[in-house]
Specification:
five-stranded parallel sheet; 401 residues; binds 2-acetamido-2-deoxy-beta-D-glucopyranose; SGNH_hydro_sf; hydrolase activity, acting on ester bonds; Rossmann fold; alpha/beta
Length: 401
């Protein structure tokens, strides 16, 4: 990091233009040699598609996913696959999430696609296809669709619940460890490699709430998720400390989105009581829930910072970034910030899965939500810009070099 500072700051103006225009050819910023990321579908670049490659049609591998950036569906590492939701855990998963949510977006699936390019690195490869052989010279993405922060056993032993997603942060960190042991064997080599890397830790934890609130029976009880929230925060904090112990020096930790503004929440928890909504049409209770999560997460980050004074731990404010579309849609070129571009004729663009039978809006760049759960490339690019340059990161990422 250190010796590249000059080059990096010179590139800032270019980077900004890139993020805004999507211009793909950019020289190396030199801040970080690699990015390693963990999380769920918000940032999965193909791990899930790879996992189920022999089992199902992966919506990320069929249009309209990918239509805007790649002009073809990608699956991001997953080959084309045939339909058979035969595996019971996958069936459960799709019951909870519906197959359409398994795509991630119309284009670049995540702010960090954009950030990777802004930082002069290529799109992050998914880890699973090359888990045992890859050298990952520019990093790897360990995030998997549906991943939870807490282990499945947590919910089994406490609440006698089988969660729809049998994989968690634990698995991602275990794979990460194995990869590090191979590509940088020995403590010193691991530390050196990680000190030159950016670690993106999340968003993770959203699914630990989603499976509860998407279930009509479970979600009658809104207190239990508030009770297990501190354990999610502890789990994220322990994971961040773990990568610090391995040698990471710069770690970005995103908070949760305002789930009360997300189409699937708005349709599942539709209310005829106007007091349940804020002035923007979002569900007030659920947004307060997300703010609570983020507040606890920021406290945890504060503790991690004081315990690890030589490490840059950056909080990314996804809540604030998303609320920017909701509060100022026109300023951002968004027509209906609470409506999904791809889906059905429901009030929030819901009612039909986003798949090859879905209704797809004509211009995704005028929408913030791609499907019921995930955002459009437009939204991600605004968020990425706010994280790279501020104001949606406590240390703007481009200033963290
Ligand atoms: C179903 O998928 C899970 C998760 O990938 C896997 O652990 C399990 O072995 C699979 N079961 C069958 C019957 O294929
Ligand atoms: C746990 O859940 C299973 C399946 O839903 C049920 O059959 C069983 O009675 C439950 N056990 C307890 C202790 O509640
Ligand atoms: C509106 O809410 C009231 C009180 O909760 C309920 O009795 C009524 O059935 C609801 N009406 C509709 C159309 O959902």
């Amino acid at each position: 990091m250190g010796s590249s500072n000059g080059h990096c700051s010179i590139s800032l103006a270019v980077l900004f233009v890139f993020v805004v225009t999507g211009d793909a050819n950019l020289g190396s910023c030199g801040c970080f040699k690699r990015i390693f990321s963990f999380g769920d579908s918000i940032i999965d670049t193909g791990n899930f598609a790879y996992t189920i490659r022999n089992r199902s049609p992966s919506p990320p591998s069929v249009l309209p996913y990918g239509e805007t950036y790649f002009h073809h569906p990608t699956g991001r590492g997953g080959p084309r696959i045939k339909t058979d939701w035969g595996n019971s855990s996958i069936r459960k998963l799709t019951k909870a999430y519906k197959p359409h949510n398994m795509l991630y977006t119309n284009a670049l699936s995540d702010p960090y696609y954009l950030s990777a390019q802004a930082l002069g690195l290529p799109l992050l490869p998914p880890s699973l296809p090359e888990e045992k052989t890859g050298q990952f010279p520019t990093g790897a993405n360990f995030a998997v669709f549906g991943a939870m922060a807490l282990n499945p056993n947590y919910f089994k032993s406490r609440y006698n619940l089988s969660v729809p997603f049998p994989w968690s942060l634990h698995d991602q960190l275990a794979t990460f460890n194995k990869v590090l042991t191979r590509i940088a064997p020995g403590d010193a080599a691991t530390k050196r490699l990680l000190s030159e890397s950016l670690v993106v830790f999340g968003e993770i934890g959203g699914n630990d709430y989603n499976f509860w609130f998407f279930d009509s029976e479970l979600s009658k009880d809104r207190n239990t998720p508030l009770q297990y929230m501190p354990d999610i925060i502890d789990r994220i904090g322990a994971g961040v400390q773990k990568v610090i112990n391995l040698g990471a020096k710069t770690i970005l930790v995103p908070g949760n989105f305002p789930i009360g503004c997300v189409p699937v929440y708005l349709s599942t928890h539709k209310s005829n009581t106007s007091a349940d909504y804020d002035q923007f049409g979002c569900l007030a209770w659920f947004n307060a829930f997300s703010r609570r999560h983020n507040q606890l997460l920021k406290q945890e980050i504060g503790r991690l910072k004081s315990r690890n004074p030589s490490v840059k731990i950056i909080y990314a404010d996804y809540y604030g970034a998303f609320m920017e579309f909701v509060k100022n849609p026109n300023r951002n070129g968004i027509d209906s910030p609470l409506v999904a571009c791809c889906g059905g004729n429901g009030p929030y663009g819901t009612g039909l899965p986003c798949d090859w039978n879905a209704k797809v809006c004509r211009d995704p760049s005028r929408f913030a939500n791609w499907d019921q759960v995930h955002m459009t490339e437009k939204a991600y690019s605004v968020i990425a810009n706010g994280v790279l340059n501020g104001p949606y990161a406590d240390i703007p990422l481009l200033h963290a070099c």
